[in-house]
Design goal:
The chain is built from ten helices and 13 strands. By secondary structure, the chain is of the alpha/beta class. The strands form two sheets. Strands 1, 2, 3, 7, 8, 9, 10, 11, 12 and 13 form a ten-stranded mixed beta sheet that branches.
Length: 279
């Protein structure tokens, strides 16, 4: 009888534990995969105020110089293990600054280039274990500022308010894995694109989401104010998702995915792959 009682007690404990676990919500995921199918292809650029053409062209001239002398490839290999920079790109707009454009001279007189960024966007710009802002774009910008003869100041901003920060003059450029879109080209000055990117979907490895179409009825998360939302909205599945969660940065969205509170994470490929590889 005692043995039967012990077996009954053990079974009851297992049942109660299972019930408690199921009542605690979704179980956190530990490994993640990228769907083979991407939402959109795009390119990154450095955004300047619409009238700061002289400044934008000088930054581009130095970037082209760094591509030619191998410094840009050295930085790219440090962060990606290969040279991913675009070469021989066409200019989006002007190739020469108009008369009276004093934007470059203003930066040189000030002795400072203020770079606006989302400091939670690895590997482009993010905080390391010592709370220092580091990243691929940061290394590129430091080299550009050094060759320009000015100090680089990093200014974290709310990504959803980036255009306002730029137009208000609180920052001199936005250099942080920013996708070039028609709307942004109309409101900022871009010289050339420097990296190709895609919008991808990340899910837990054991997820039943295997294609973009499988997002129907699912909880999807992405960064507020990012091009991920635009890429999702271009796809017919956008009208079919169960819910959409927009948060301030991609790392926070990933944590929601990891905790099981969303089913899928739409994100820039360069950032998404870096995040899940470091998990």
């Amino acid at each position: 009888m005692r043995k039967i009682f012990k077996l009954f007690t053990a079974a009851l404990a297992i049942t109660l534990s299972a019930a408690l676990l199921s009542s605690c919500g979704p179980r956190p995921a530990t490994t993640f995969v990228v769907l083979d199918e991407a939402l959109d292809a795009e390119q990154y650029g450095i955004g300047f105020r619409i009238g700061d053409i002289a400044l934008g062209l000088e930054v581009q001239r130095i970037m082209d110089e760094m591509i030619q002398d191998g410094k840009a490839a050295e930085i790219s290999n440090k962060w990606f293990g290969e040279d991913i920079l675009l070469k021989n790109q066409d200019f989006y707009k002007e190739t020469a600054a108009p008369e009276g454009d004093g934007s470059l001279e203003a930066i040189k007189t000030k002795g400072e280039l203020i770079l606006g960024l989302d400091d939670s966007f690895p590997p482009m710009g993010f905080r390391d274990e010592n709370n220092n802002i580091v990243g691929f774009d940061i290394d590129l910008a430091r080299e550009v500022a050094s060759r320009m003869g000015v100090k680089l100041t990093l200014q974290p901003i709310n990504w959803d308010s980036k255009e306002l920060e730029l137009s208000a003059g609180r920052i001199d450029c936005i250099w942080n894995g920013m996708t070039i879109t028609d709307e942004r080209v109309a409101n900022m000055f871009f010289a050339k694109a420097y990296i190709a990117n895609r919008q991808i979907v990340i899910v837990p490895e054991n997820s039943n989401i295997k294609t973009i179409a499988n997002l129907e009825g699912k909880k999807v998360g992405l960064q507020k104010g990012s091009s991920s939302l635009e890429a999702l909205n271009k796809n017919p599945v956008a009208a079919l998702v169960g819910s959409l969660t927009e948060l301030d940065d991609n790392v926070t969205v990933f944590l929601e995915l990891k905790a099981g509170r969303i089913d899928a994470f739409v994100v820039d490929e360069v950032a998404g792959r870096y995040i899940i590889s470091n998990n």
